[in-house]
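Hi V.,

Quick status before I head out on leave. The structure for the redesign project is tokenized and pasted below; the design run finished overnight.
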């Protein structure tokens, strides 16, 4: 019942709006994640988006929306000036402390919602380009600058591994991105994360070859299978005019093919 008064205060500048979008506004319906599958002309509808919902989809498809996730208008402007971390390399069981500075660069006081995203830079699984992990609202007078703090834990770097029914972290570089919306993230910090207590899925004849390489206990089996696979393919025989660079590129292409092949098919191909 107070909507009218609230809108009047915003329009006249008595109050500075500080809300941010909790969804992505597409430029057209065809840009939305479920468009190819919904509505269905059949009795069932396929859920084809998977984990790529909202900004995760637009990021992966490089589609520019009308308004991105986290977007919001204000009568003032904000600048993100600094980001620091208490470490640049740590175990996933450690707590990563992130500090960022935000400054009101306009002439009106206002609140900014600081958003922190995490990107797995060297991920070898299907995963969004970045994921929102934390956000915080800070009130700033004109010209005022404040520090905003975040604490990242193991869960902020993990993904749910359905094969082992649990949350897991992959080893590698993670990028911390901070800013005012999902497509405006001027601050970044790289952190090397080492996972602890990795649980490996059980392997069988339907497992892909690359799954053997991930488990140290099966690395020797992987090396043997790959050696046999590469040595028995006539397509891998060097041609007369082939350069060393061309040979390496060709071998790399076949390695990718074999890595993503179930073991039982690989064995059948080498017979």
């Amino acid at each position: 019942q107070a909507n009218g008064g609230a809108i009047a205060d915003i329009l006249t500048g008595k109050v500075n709006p500080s809300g941010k979008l909790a969804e992505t506004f597409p430029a057209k319906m065809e840009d939305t994640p479920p468009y190819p599958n919904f509505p269905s002309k059949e009795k069932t509808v396929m859920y084809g988006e998977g984990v790529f919902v909202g900004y995760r989809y637009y990021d992966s498809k490089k589609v520019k929306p009308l308004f991105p996730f986290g977007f919001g208008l204000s009568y003032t402007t904000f600048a993100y000036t600094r980001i620091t971390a208490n470490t640049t390399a740590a175990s996933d069981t450690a707590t990563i402390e992130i500090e960022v500075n935000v400054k009101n660069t306009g002439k009106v006081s206002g609140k900014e919602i600081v958003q922190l995203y995490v990107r797995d830079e060297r991920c070898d699984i299907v995963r969004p380009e970045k994921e929102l992990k934390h956000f915080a609202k800070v009130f700033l007078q004109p010209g005022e600058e404040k520090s905003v703090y975040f604490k990242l834990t193991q869960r902020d770097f993990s993904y749910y591994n359905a094969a082992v029914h649990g949350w897991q972290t992959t080893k590698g570089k993670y990028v911390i991105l901070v800013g005012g919306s999902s497509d405006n993230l001027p601050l970044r910090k790289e952190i090397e994360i080492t996972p602890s207590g990795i649980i490996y899925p059980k392997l069988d004849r339907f497992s892909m070859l690359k799954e053997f390489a991930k488990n140290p206990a099966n690395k020797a089996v992987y090396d043997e299978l790959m050696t046999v696979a590469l040595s028995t393919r006539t397509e891998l025989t060097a041609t007369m005019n082939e350069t060393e660079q061309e040979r390496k590129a060709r071998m790399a292409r076949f390695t990718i093919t074999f890595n993503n092949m179930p073991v039982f098919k690989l064995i059948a191909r080498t017979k």
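Above is the designed sequence. The CA atoms of residues 81 and 176 lie 15 Å apart.

G. will cover questions while I'm gone.

Best,
W.
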